[in-house]
Amino acid sequence: QVQLVESGGGLVQAGGSLRLSCAASGVIFSINAMGWYRQAPGRQRELVATVSSDATTNYADSVKGRFTISRDNAKNTVVLQMNSLKPDDTAVYYCNLNRRIGIDINYWGKGTSVTVSS
Hints:
The structure is a single chain. By secondary structure, the protein is mainly beta. The protein has strands at about 5, 10-15, 20-25, 30-40, 45-50, 55-60, 65-70, 75-80, 90-100, 105-110, 110-115. The N and C termini lie far apart (about 40 Å).
């Protein structure tokens, strides 16, 4: 069973920074990618950033140049550094782990709240 534990959310003023961390534990192999998604009130969950096993990164257009995702394959952790935060970044952020074993299996953390005040 894979478990994902997030940390680092909180309240910050616009223009500030936060660092989200996610640690994966359990039976972990065939990891394709890890990443972060977010869901704001009344909106669908959306991709924020992902990093694959070969270190290829993918960012939502809205966060490019402001957020940086990094991954430690040996420790099965993923970090999202968020700079120049905007009120529109306010959401619950979820850690994701994608395994590819013939089919894609996704695991999710419980989420950590990020609130950016104007």
